[in-house]
Structures are given as C-alpha cells and as structure tokens.
User: Fold this.
Amino acid sequence: MVLICIPSLDKNGLKGEISQHLGKTPYFVLIRWENDEIEDLQVLESKGKHMGGGMTPGEFITGSGAEALLCGNLGSKAIQMIQSAGINVYVGATGTVIDALQDWAEGKLQKANQDSACADGHV
Assistant:
C-alpha cells in the first residue's frame, strides 16, 4: 500500500485539476493505492501559508503520512524538504488527478531532483 498526495485546484477528487503551483494549491487529494487500485480517497483543504494557514505545503505534505507526491513542478526547497522526509516526489503531472495517478502507475512521471526544480524557486 502506498499513500499518494496530489495537489488539486478544486474539491472534485479524481476529476480535480492538478494545481501547477504547489505553494498556492487550495486542496490536496490523498489516495491509498494498493494492488494497482484505489482503496480510499480524501480531499483535504490546504493549510499552506499562501492559503491562510500556518504551515508550508511541504510541512502539510510531510505531516500527511504520504509516501509519494505527484505534482506538476515545485521549487528546490520543497523538493529538499519533502524528499528528506522520505517521500518520493514525481514531477510532470498534468490534467486531472486521475491522469496524474495513471501516468505515475505507468511510469510516465519523472522523479524530482534539483535540476527539475522550478526556476522561480518558490515552495
């Protein structure tokens, strides 16, 4: 079983659009993935500082219990923080949450590294 976190622009679960700016994502979709199937799904409101909360998106993700983050892109500080918590970070996700999940399952997303970080350097 793997717990996957995916940033989303809305509360539409699997049909939600991927948020391309991790630091300003309004929602996170947490998916329990086991035996190539979705076992459970939760949509959680972001507690990020950009959204009026008290923590960074990286802190939210590392505190969620997620083992993998699927996202469009993210800054180098976020990559470092999330990976140092033992979470695998994948970039290149586009479209909807289910699109990102399918791309990850098919090995189409690449593992994030400092070379793939957003040039803007935002978290």
